[in-house]
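Journal club side-thread
Mid-discussion, someone asked how the predicted structure for our own chain would compare to the paper's figures. Pasting it here so we can look after the session.
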Amino acid sequence: MSGEVRRINRELVYKGAILEVYNDTMEFANGNRAGWDYIHHVGAAAVVPVLDDGRILMVRQYRNALERETLEIPAGKLDAAGEAGIECSRRELEEETGYRAGQLEWLITIRPTVAYCDERIEIYVARDLTMSVQDLDENEYVLVRPYSLDELKGMIYDGTIEDSKTVAALLAYEDRYLR
């Protein structure tokens, strides 16, 4: 199938702080050509932080694309291409929640928008949490609160939680650890 489609040109349209937008010219086996959008993202990591009592720490923060706050698992972009996802998740957990993980275990890797973006998010489960210090970026405002998995699943199914990494992570966590 890949022989039926090939990229014959890639043009950088925009380079931002966290992504690059390209216009790709694609050619098909029948000779037709089309322009396809492509977004490059350096990648990210996320973490399901599980307290000793089983509750999961969640972060509430404003998301510009949605023009509202969202409830999500802690996450952040890799500092550089090639940074290990486990190190990024460890850093983001402490920065966003003020907790350190005694144990981190890989859960799943997702590609949230495969039609036009190459972003890859490695998701880990954090246990044996100890209090540290929240270290937010200068313009980052994050509220941290624990929830039971049942509360979170209710918010998934009532549409409150729509973030794909969070939905995938919470349901995968339940399937892997609680069934």
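Post-session note: The first helix runs from residue 85 to 97.
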